[in-house]
Amino acid sequence: MNQLKKGSKKLLNAWAFYDWANSVYTLTIASSIFPIFYSALFLGQIEKTVPAFGMVFKSTALITYVTAFTFLIVAFTSPILSGIADYVGNKKNFMKFFCYVGSAGCIGLYWFNIDSIHISLLFYFMGLIGYWGSLVFYNSYLPDIAYPEQQDSISAKGFSMGYFGSVILLLLNLGMVMMPELFGFDISISQTILENGTKKEIAEALREAKNTASFEAMRISFITVGLWWILFSQYTFYVLPAGVSKGHKVTKDVVFNGLRELKQVWFQLKQNLRLKRYLVAFFVFSMAVQTIMLVAVYFGEEEIAWGSSDAKTQGLIVSILVIQLVAILGAFLTSRASSKFGNIKTLIAINFFWMLLCFYAFFMKTPEQFYIAAGFVGLVMGGVQSLARSTYSKFLPETEDTTSYFSFYDVAEKIGIVIGMVIFATIDQVTGSMRNAILFLVIFFIAGIVLLFRVPKSNVQNKV
Questions:
Q1: What angle do CA 216, 217, 218 make, to 5 degrees?
Q2: Helix (H) or strand (E) holding 198
């Protein structure tokens, strides 16, 4: 098709539509059904351990370590790959590659099992790196397809499309898991038990059959995510420009150009005290926030007394939906608070709230307490990320090279996630309790509060 003009409605909508395609990964795989599925693999195990890479890991520690490793790969490769894509002029091919790798990884999760743990973790790794890798190039398209005055609105539209699309598929998948019989999954029991079993034996057999069907529904949901991602991304790929082929050859200088740009930003930060201090504060508190968001469902599965596996599955699903719904309100309230009290004061208050949540999580044991925590997590989760990014944007110096600054911001965020996840997994592995790990994160929120207090109110140049 003919290349559309920059700023055209069709081009902008096609770009935003990729959010509809890929956001199903974060909600179904990263946040909800996969964590429930993963924990179900260890039902009946007292210690819940798994041998991998020549060691024996606690199940939750292993998945946390793999997640941290993936973010480490993304942190170091994304500036290199984006630099190559810009230089050669084929960013759409890079975006497609990561999209297909991620989609294939999601589909591959259907065969995830403990006996083949290494290939299973490879599928998990593919889904995670495919999602974050494609986002690097997806985000870099924004200044290419939209004028500055259009970027905020179309970015928000992409976010909203991603939210609604992912919720639609999640509700379908949750329906499959909670009511498998309505979707054609077999929940029948043997005729022998029906004829000769007691009421208790029949009820137990029915419950076991439904659990088996629900487990199979979880596997099928991974396939639906991969197919949804692939199919709906095709419209975006069809409309987006491929990028201007520049005929450049990739040299050593090009490969490391992205890293050099990050180094230049680091030196420029030394001349801007407010931005430097804010970025350090962000690095510290984001480390804890992102870790909690990534392990919340695993924590709820392991540390809360649900009573039965059915109650656990339903309880975790309800908690996920609570978080998603309350997050909308949280984003609105955070925006109102920042306009009234200022960004830094609002971030300090949110960090204090997160700190209290960590204390609360250490002591909570009942499903009701977990629901309350889920509501409060949604409340502060909905706004902290957007407020942190917009605060960083406000503190940037007047420059046309905002891409390098935001690349530095993204790398800092990813490295923070790696450190937070590794610390969390290590405490979980060594002490055998995620409660100890969640309590340790209080230190990062306290440090974040202290560092935010040190951010100057106006732009200050370093004297060194």
A1: 90
A2: none
Please say whether the beta carbons of 423 and 440 come within 8 A: yes
CATH topology of domain 1-186+212-255: Growth Hormone; Chain: A; (1.20.1250)
pLDDT value of residue 462: 44
- In this predicted structure, the answer to whether residue 370 has a pLDDT above a threshold of 80 is yes
- Predicted confidence (pLDDT) at residue 464 exceeds the cutoff of 60: no
Question: For residues 265 and 404, is the Cβ–Cβ distance under 8 A?
Answer: yes
CATH of domain 259-464: 1.20.1250.20
CB atoms within 10 A of CB 147: 11
Same fold, 1-186+212-255 and 259-464: yes
**What is the reported pTM?**
0.81
Q: Which range has the worst mean pLDDT, 21-25, 192-196, 254-258?
A: 254-258
The full set of domain ranges for the chain reads 1-186+212-255, 259-464
Convert 94-113 to b/e letters by CB count within 10 Å (16 or more is b). bbbebbbbbbbbbbbbeebe
Both tokens of 79, joined, read 């500036």
> Which amino acid makes up residue 91?
K
Closest CA to 431 of 38, 39, 58: 58
